[in-house]
Hints:
By secondary structure, the protein is α+β, with helices and mostly antiparallel strands. Helices cover 33% and strands 15% of the residues. It has helices spanning 16-20, 46-50, 77-86, 100-110, 130-145, 155-165, 189-204, 215-222, 226-231; strands at 4-6, 26-29, 32-35, 56-58, 123-127, 176-183, 210-213, 238-247. A hairpin with a 2-residue loop joins strand 2 and strand 3. It is elongated and about 75 Å long. It starts with a strand and ends in a 21-residue tail after the last strand.
Amino acid sequence: MNLIKVDQSSCIKCGICTKVCPTGFLSMNENVPEETNSSSCIACGQCVAACPYGAIDNTKTPFSSQVNIEHFPVIDSQTAEYFLRSRRSIRCYKNTPVPQEKLLKLVDIAHFAPTASNTQCVSYIIVRDKKILENATKIIVDWMEHQSNKSHWSFSRHVSNYREAGIDTILRDAPHLILAIAPKEFKNGRENTISSLSYLELFATTIGLGSCWAGLFEMCAFSNYYPLLELFNIPTDKSITGAVMVGYPKYEYKRLVDRAPINVTCME
């Protein structure tokens, strides 16, 4: 299977494409990049992205679908620092639905996150039905009540909030929930999900949205609690690997919060 095409008139035979290839799929043969083993290509697109003159094309990651970067780095370091530090876990949301196109944009960005050996394999469920989320909270409360008191220190508080005060401290009355799922036999599902949902959370702030990992939801899902899996119609060959609440933040944060002093060791 010939995956690579080289424009000989543009190629300067620098070999960069072979040096950035993570699997040794490409090598220089008589100063021309050639395939060594097509089955080792993981479709990462490094060869096409790194070529200074656009001389190489890869069927799995076509040149035509790549986007030119005009300036690198794309943003300056202080802007990046403030952007990263400004993300906060949002637990108070407006009772306003997010347009579907914005939610779809979130998961589109999420799927560009790095994954182990470019395996990807994470898919998403966008939950917009508030009734389903209300049922999910009820199911999780039921699950908590049947757990040992030592399962988690906060269970009794969340159950009490729901049963006695009618307050949802599990999904926080968020208007939407985004689930990540992956095949059960896929060993990197959770790791890839953490990476992808982190991208989602960071991008959310740029379009006026807030988010928060639904940790209690995840605990219930990871225990394979059937009523919860049935509610979201999770296929039997797949598992929930992550969950994030999404909506418009009810309040604005005016300051960047500091953290405890960093503990770091440098080895030279």
